[in-house]
Amino acid sequence: MAVAGLIVGFGTRLGGGCTSGHGVCGVGIGAKDSIAATLIFMWAGMLTVLIYNWLVL
Amino acid sequence: MNSERSFLFFLAGTLFGTGLAISGMTDPGRVIGFLDVFGAWDPALLFVMAGAVGVYGLGMLILRRLKTQNFKLPATTPSPIDRQLVTGAAIFGIGWGLGGFCPGPSLANLGALRIEAVVFVPAMAIGMFFAQRFFGVDR
Question: With an 8 Å Cβ cutoff, are A34 and B78 in contact?
Answer without folding.
Answer: yes
